[in-house]
Amino acid sequence: MLTQNLGYPRIGSQRELKKICENYWADKTGYKNVLQVGKNIRHENWKLQKEAGIDVIPSNDFSFYDHVLDHSLTFGAIPKRYNEVILKKGNEELDLYFAMARGYQKEGLDVVAMEMTKWFDTNYHYIVPEFCKDQPFKLFSTKIIDEFYEAKQLGITTKPVLIGPVSYLLLGKEKEAGFEKIDLIKNLLPVYIEILSRLNALDVEYVQFDEPFLTLDLTEKDKKAYEHVYKEIRKAFPRLKIVLATYFEGLGNNLALTTSLPVDVLHIDLVRAEDQLNDVLASLKEEIILSLGLVDGRNIWKNDFEKSLSIINQAVEKRGLAKVWIAPSCSLIHSPVDLDNETNEKNLSAEIKQWLAYAKQKIAEVATLKKLITHESPASTLQKLEENKIAISNRKVSKIIHNPAVKARVSALKEKDAERLSPFSARKIKQQELNLPNYATTTIGSFPQTAEVRSWRAKLKNGSLTVEEYDNLIAQETEKAVKWQEEINLDVLVHGEFERNDMVEYFGEQLDGFAFSKNGWVQSYGSRCVKPPIIFGDVSRPEPMTVKWTAYAQSLTSKYMKGMLTGPVTILQWSFVRNDQPRSETCTQIALAIRDEVCDLENAGIKIIQIDEPAIREGLPLRKADWQNYLNWAVKAFKISASGVKDGTQIHTHMCYSEFNDIIQNIADMDADVITIETSRSQMELLDAFADFKYPNEIGPGVYDIHSPRVPKREEMVQLLKKAKAVIPSEQLWVNPDCGLKTRGWDETKKALIEMVEAAKEMRKAEKVLSADLQAN
């Protein structure tokens, strides 16, 4: 029996990767320093896994920004607009790579970034490959080969990790009509063969192919591509040991296809799809090793050893020890790095901490399970089993988890609690009293959190600032932001959220049932790391959370100040969620807490309230057959949070980096008065779904990409608004950035928003001219 890992966090135990990359982008450090930090992280990760007892250790799971983008660079799938970046004197391969991820605006060049979207149903964002008809592929970057060799120099023979050819193509996007991306397999497969040939020459033993699309609904053409690809790879490399990794869901109706593929090891996710084990055991060929994904790669709860041992014994009884491996359910990039870094009991009590495991601890759990099942069990290992039993038992009976009052409130909910007083058509008439213009301008909520602002929070926590001193500083920063928004003539203002650390963490800190880590960072995209709250118990709101700062900001202006909240589904999705009750139950508890906050904001005189739900689409189950159940409770949770207010109070919501075509009816069912969405990277393509559906409520398609440092020109935004107007009536349109501005700098933010306001003015002016011409005729 062997142990394997599918991937390890690449941010570094102290977020070293984030810091060096951001310094490089700011021209504060050199190219060689970035490479060295990356190398240090890789070496640390490989050594840690070897010392922990992992037999098959991954390489090529490290990335400076995104592993899908790594593959696009490796395969030479580089959009033509980056040709000038490639040719720019002095640019390294890494500069091209970052330009594809973030855009490039310097030295006379102005190139937009590639699109970004969610990695299946996680909060990780990947850079979407762009394909044209007859897309050529070639081996452009040798990263995968270099990193295998690098590990070998350390005395560690790793298992290179590749996104499988079919999944890579399915992750991408056709950028022109007239072809299907899966047809590009004939162009792509030779590059895989070349990579494997080079690895083979270095005596590689195992290669891991990640094929998560095998857990999704596939077309017949997709299935034939799978059969073709793995048949050709096996024919070219008869002795190469292929690890086929599936995760995030069960194989379902792809079981026969998957178990027929000529691979050596099949990995399945038994955390998300425990019930698939019997079917896989019955279907799998005798010679294929089964890798059991038992340790949860996406959550922070300690593994239940007794339960896992029972599953392992079931597999061993059927296949024998040599044909069973033990592993995490998926890559550990979705887990924080090391629980040992949590040393502050104010953040995380000892009672809760005993229930948790981060990536380092999960690796140890995998190794311990192997020792227990193979009876390589010294006293220390048996002691770990006993400690595990105690922790699992303690969690089940803990008094801090259950709140009868919260459970009773959920049980008492009625259908009317999830409905506004009147339909949108009546609310719209009432909301016209707000006297907002066509192309009303606003932002999504947050303004830049400078190092100075972040330092105030740190000083408050360590006691070097009093609460009064901290509040005075936040008040001054809020006043400056409000005054500046008035100066540029935004129509609906925001207070800037300077008092908030993260859009989910901030609320979780004020809700009962949540706990917080100090160092539980996970990568969201690029250098952006988030620290998800831990929902361990029943959720309720002890007191108002946002009213103080929103009401203060409203007192500074005669313009409308938008109340800013995070919605229940997003709080759920972007937290580590308790796994001892249905997620729908936890979501409804959160919805009631947000509902209380919405009502308090309205009572404080706030007329416009935004409840962000960027994670609605992300939360969809991977199989369409399971969608409706999720959408029923997710949409209902949002409506519970939003439906306690009067008709004249305008409810906004925000969603980003999602495809909406297949759930547009459900988005309409949410019944928000205004929805703002990300559309700039897709050049308004995402708006087509709303146009085809004839979305009845108001909509703000984002006119510039906040995830890129480049400042768009006014003409770009005008062109995007013209595209929007071509499909959505102007009286329904708002003008806003794609997302919040927290991660941007003030200089670029001010320049971009001034251009955005001017673009809206230009659209209004053009409409007045058109209206006058029509009247004259």
Automatic annotation (TrEMBL):
<feature type="binding site">
    <location>
        <position position="612"/>
    </location>
    <ligand>
        <name>L-homocysteine</name>
    </ligand>
</feature>
<dbReference type="InterPro" id="IPR038071">
    <property type="entry name" value="UROD/MetE-like_sf"/>
</dbReference>
<feature type="active site" description="Proton donor">
    <location>
        <position position="707"/>
    </location>
</feature>
<feature type="binding site">
    <location>
        <position position="612"/>
    </location>
    <ligand>
        <name>L-methionine</name>
    </ligand>
</feature>
<keyword id="KW-0479">Metal-binding</keyword>
<feature type="binding site">
    <location>
        <position position="118"/>
    </location>
    <ligand>
        <name>5-methyltetrahydropteroyltri-L-glutamate</name>
    </ligand>
</feature>
<feature type="binding site">
    <location>
        <begin position="528"/>
        <end position="529"/>
    </location>
    <ligand>
        <name>5-methyltetrahydropteroyltri-L-glutamate</name>
    </ligand>
</feature>
<dbReference type="InterPro" id="IPR013215">
    <property type="entry name" value="Cbl-indep_Met_Synth_N"/>
</dbReference>
<feature type="binding site">
    <location>
        <begin position="15"/>
        <end position="18"/>
    </location>
    <ligand>
        <name>5-methyltetrahydropteroyltri-L-glutamate</name>
    </ligand>
</feature>
<feature type="binding site">
    <location>
        <position position="678"/>
    </location>
    <ligand>
        <name>Zn(2+)</name>
    </ligand>
</feature>
<feature type="domain" description="Cobalamin-independent methionine synthase MetE C-terminal/archaeal">
    <location>
        <begin position="440"/>
        <end position="761"/>
    </location>
</feature>
<dbReference type="Pfam" id="PF01717">
    <property type="entry name" value="Meth_synt_2"/>
</dbReference>
<keyword id="KW-0486">Methionine biosynthesis</keyword>
<dbReference type="InterPro" id="IPR006276">
    <property type="entry name" value="Cobalamin-indep_Met_synthase"/>
</dbReference>
<feature type="binding site">
    <location>
        <position position="656"/>
    </location>
    <ligand>
        <name>Zn(2+)</name>
    </ligand>
</feature>
<feature type="binding site">
    <location>
        <begin position="444"/>
        <end position="446"/>
    </location>
    <ligand>
        <name>L-methionine</name>
    </ligand>
</feature>
<keyword id="KW-0862">Zinc</keyword>
<feature type="binding site">
    <location>
        <position position="497"/>
    </location>
    <ligand>
        <name>L-homocysteine</name>
    </ligand>
</feature>
<feature type="binding site">
    <location>
        <position position="497"/>
    </location>
    <ligand>
        <name>L-methionine</name>
    </ligand>
</feature>
<keyword id="KW-0028">Amino-acid biosynthesis</keyword>
<keyword id="KW-0808">Transferase</keyword>
<comment type="similarity">
    <text>Belongs to the vitamin-B12 independent methionine synthase family.</text>
</comment>
<comment type="pathway">
    <text>Amino-acid biosynthesis; L-methionine biosynthesis via de novo pathway; L-methionine from L-homocysteine (MetE route): step 1/1.</text>
</comment>
<feature type="binding site">
    <location>
        <position position="739"/>
    </location>
    <ligand>
        <name>Zn(2+)</name>
    </ligand>
</feature>
<protein>
    <recommendedName>
        <fullName>5-methyltetrahydropteroyltriglutamate--homocysteine methyltransferase</fullName>
        <ecNumber>2.1.1.14</ecNumber>
    </recommendedName>
</protein>
<keyword id="KW-0677">Repeat</keyword>
<feature type="binding site">
    <location>
        <position position="618"/>
    </location>
    <ligand>
        <name>5-methyltetrahydropteroyltri-L-glutamate</name>
    </ligand>
</feature>
<feature type="domain" description="Cobalamin-independent methionine synthase MetE N-terminal">
    <location>
        <begin position="3"/>
        <end position="317"/>
    </location>
</feature>
<feature type="binding site">
    <location>
        <position position="574"/>
    </location>
    <ligand>
        <name>5-methyltetrahydropteroyltri-L-glutamate</name>
    </ligand>
</feature>
<feature type="binding site">
    <location>
        <begin position="444"/>
        <end position="446"/>
    </location>
    <ligand>
        <name>L-homocysteine</name>
    </ligand>
</feature>
<keyword id="KW-0489">Methyltransferase</keyword>
<comment type="function">
    <text>Catalyzes the transfer of a methyl group from 5-methyltetrahydrofolate to homocysteine resulting in methionine formation.</text>
</comment>
<dbReference type="InterPro" id="IPR002629">
    <property type="entry name" value="Met_Synth_C/arc"/>
</dbReference>
<dbReference type="Pfam" id="PF08267">
    <property type="entry name" value="Meth_synt_1"/>
</dbReference>
<feature type="binding site">
    <location>
        <position position="654"/>
    </location>
    <ligand>
        <name>Zn(2+)</name>
    </ligand>
</feature>
